[in-house]
Amino acid sequence: MNFDWTAEDLDFKNRIAALFDRESLPALEALERAELPELKATTGAFLKRLAETGYLALGLGPAAAAETLHLMAGQEEVARISGCLFLAVETTVRLFGGLLKGFGEPDRVRDILEPLLRGEIIASVAVSEPAGNEPGISRTLAREDGDSFVLNGRKSFATNGPIADYLAVTGEVDGLLAVFLVEPQMAGVSVGPRLQTLGYNGIAVSSLELTAVRVPRSRVLGPFRDTKALEWLRQIDNLVLTVASVGLMYRTLREAKEHASGHVRDGKAVGKHQEVRFKLAEMLTLAQTAQLLAYRTAWLHATADAEAATLIHCAKVFSAEASERVASLAMQIAAGEAYLSGNLVERGYRDAKYAAIAGTTSELARMAIAQDLLNLYRV
Ligand SMILES: Cc1cc2nc3c(=O)[nH]c(=O)nc-3n(C[C@H](O)[C@H](O)[C@H](O)COP(=O)(O)OP(=O)(O)OC[C@H]3O[C@@H](n4cnc5c(N)ncnc54)[C@H](O)[C@@H]3O)c2cc1C
């Protein structure tokens, strides 16, 4: 078994890493405090820079799964630098762009997809709905009316919602799944105010209200006879969250390591103490394990292996929970300094809770893993 990146992967990683030079880092740092216009401008600027490396065009749609491992080589670099930028970019490109590429009719979505791949569009994907009793694919419902669909419903969360040029909204037409591409300025579309979140403060999240929104047929993916688009979306979302967790672990580990080496107490760097070293050792072990599982998962996905769906859940659960533990250990090492608001470790600690909640929650992912284990696996 060979775990080395290919020369092509390494070159790609280096080109991505080179985008984040000294001059660009303050803008990323400022994302955490940025108001919407600045957030939109910074996200847009980095989308354009990433487009030049070919990053945006990779792995879009089920047909491009073969690129997953190569893509992950680049994704790691972005996720290590800025979790917020990473989530905003991946939502735009891999989720929204991937839906269009994989499930849209090329002639109908070309006018969105082409500028999106040039980094000129920010997009959002809204699936989650407020809690309720009615079962079904979605309580966002549409009916056909001439050459368009009339859409009504409510979405509870949309990452990039307040800065999006386009939003892909899942809904139901006569019991069938469809995806509606709406623009914030369309009549009946109401993007809620930016929600205040515990972590990832440099992304803009909102709710979304749809009241008799008339969506032309050319802006509707489906209706589909199955729910493959939704399943694909969940898998990609979970892969993205896995890489985000790995990136977060290395960010907080780097801070903890620097603190352990540079912070002197009673004449001794705190990293000289075994109690601190054991924490660092556990952090690296968790980060490395999560990273390896992420690579294996990406490889299974890239080779269309039957185990890929199960491993995506395993990797997402493990990396999410490992990132919480790593962030907590980093805070213990950097102690009082890390507890101050705005510190990178403090941010990492708050960010870390997100991955277990977002996408497929850890509870639902565990249930799916157990189901697969009992039905499919020979162990
Ligand atoms: C900052 C932020 C950004 C987000 N961005 C987006 C976005 O861009 N697009 C989008 O579509 N969504 C988005 N979401 C929504 C996110 O994906 C959901 O919060 C997540 O899927 C969990 O759904 P929920 O909050 O409704 O929890 P619920 O589904 O209500 O679950 C509540 C609890 O019950 C557990 N539970 C639920 N059902 C079961 C079951 N059958 N068995 C056992 N346990 C169960 C869950 O695991 C969880 O612990 C975002 C959320 C946040 C916080």
Walk me through what this model shows.
- This protein is an alpha+beta fold.
- It folds into three domains: 7-122, Acyl-CoA dehydrogenase/oxidase, N-terminal domain (Butyryl-Coa Dehydrogenase, subunit A, domain 1); 124-224, Butyryl-CoA Dehydrogenase, subunit A, domain 2 (Beta Barrel); 228-376, Butyryl-CoA Dehydrogenase, subunit A, domain 3 (Up-down Bundle).
- The protein has helices spanning 7-19, 25-30, 36-52, 68-81, 83-103, 106-117, 228-262, 274-302, 308-339, 344-352, 354-357, 362-375, and strands spanning 123-126, 141-145, 148-159, 166-173, 176-182, 189-191, 205-216, 220-224, 264-265, 268-269.
- The strands form three sheets. The chain has a four-stranded mixed sheet with strand order 1-4-5-8, covered by helices on one side.
- Strand 2 (141-145) and strand 3 form a beta hairpin.
- Helix 5 (83-103) runs antiparallel to helix 7 (228-262) and helix 7 (228-262) runs parallel beside helix 9 (308-339).
- The site of flavin-adenine dinucleotide has 18 residues, from strand 1, strand 3 and helix 12.
User: Low-confidence stretches at least 5 residues in length (pLDDT < 50)?
Assistant: none
The arrangement of helices and strands along the chain is HHHHHHEEEEEEEEHEEHHHHH
How many independent structural domains? 3
Q: Assign an overall shape.
A: globular
Strand order of the largest sheet: 1-4-5-8
Count up the helices.
12
Distance between the termini: 20 Å
Share in helix: 40-55%
CATH architecture of the largest domain: Up-down Bundle
Q: Assign the CATH topology of the largest domain.
A: Butyryl-CoA Dehydrogenase, subunit A, domain 3
The CATH class assignment of the largest domain is Mainly Alpha
Which percent band covers the strand fraction? 15-25%
Class per helix and strand makeup = alpha+beta
In angstroms, what is the radius of gyration? 21 Å
Number of DSSP strand runs: 10
Largest sheet: 4 strands, mixed
CATH superfamily of the largest domain: Butyryl-CoA Dehydrogenase, subunit A, domain 3
Mean pLDDT: 96
Bound molecules: flavin-adenine dinucleotide
